[in-house]
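dumping this here before i forget
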Amino acid sequence: MWELTILGFLAEGPLPGHELRRKVTQLIGYTRPVSDGSLYPAIDRLAKAGLLVRQADPRAGAARFVLSLTEAGHADMLERLRTPADHEITDFTRFLTLLAFLSKLPDVGEQHAVLRRRLAFLEEPASFFYDGGRPLRAEEVDDPYRRGALLTARAVSRTERAWLREVLGEEPPEDDPAPSGPSPRPAAPTTTGDSA
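structure:
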């Protein structure tokens, strides 16, 4: 996730390190803290791989630098967008990062392929709570807080699926569940790891 975020922002133009950190924090800091111990090692990995270059910024003083995307970095970013890993489709925060840069893919068909993967994931029946192997609906849960989690996830999932269908130019299926029907997959909770 860090790598795509860095590459995506640098695809918009060179940035001083502190400005890149601000942009990353604004995009994902509400769900994950953006620490120097997470961000700068990712920058170092990308630089060592030849995906970005770091140049001293004499106007900003000692130890300040400007980051720029290389051609290889641009190609890498496009490939990450074109073929995201499954966890980048299923994890809500990672998917939002994909969305933030998906328009960088020049081919609308490739953009839509990513959106269709997310829609397919959201349309699978699932729950946070199960009775054996059967996903429980909010209406079947007595605990008010668990029911609240399921109702909230259902609303988020419905909204996201409607938006995805709108962008894809698709009509909702005839058997789209009514508010009290079986729950589609809830929005996936975010993970705590920082790996990409």
